[in-house]
Amino acid sequence: MQHLPHNLAELKSFNRPDEVRDFPKGKLEIITIGGVIIGRATFQPGWRWSESLQPIAKTTSCEAPHFQYHIAGVLKVKMDDGQEYECRAGDISLLPSGHDAWVVGDEPVIVVDFQGMYNYGK
Q1: If I label 121, which of 21, 37, 103, 107 is the partner at 20 to 30 A Cα–Cα?
Q2: Three-state DSSP class for 49?
Q3: Is the domain covering 19-113 a CATH 2.60.120.10 domain?
């Protein structure tokens, strides 16, 4: 993890992201602060990684590792080894490479990711 110099303060907001990436049934807002890329992803009901982003990533499953804080909605994650998780608002998840994920129910999923969004949706 990179450390900020003690004399440098920064303030950024997802209300004014540095970059926005749109993909089917979702979007990713990116900010870079302290040399670190942080993403806020919004996934609409019906979103599924294997349908929305697999054609962009061209990998069998999601290869981006994630360290996420879940703000809203329910995200179901299935690891390549078969383990399954339901991530809900208030949860923090650490997901290694090799998974699929999808929105459960009618509420959009919103997550803030501190690790795996630098190349997500590109």
Answers
A1: 107
A2: helix
A3: yes
pTM for the model stands at 0.88
Residue 95 tokens read as 């997901």
pLDDT in tens, the chain (122 residues): 555 555 789 999 999 999 999 999 999 999 999 888 999 999 999 999 999 988 888 899 999 899 999 999 999 999 999 999 999 999 999 999 999 999 999 999 999 999 877 666 65
Q: What are the boundaries of each domain within the chain? A: 19-113
DSSP letters spanning 66-87: EEEEEEESEEEEEETTS-EEEE
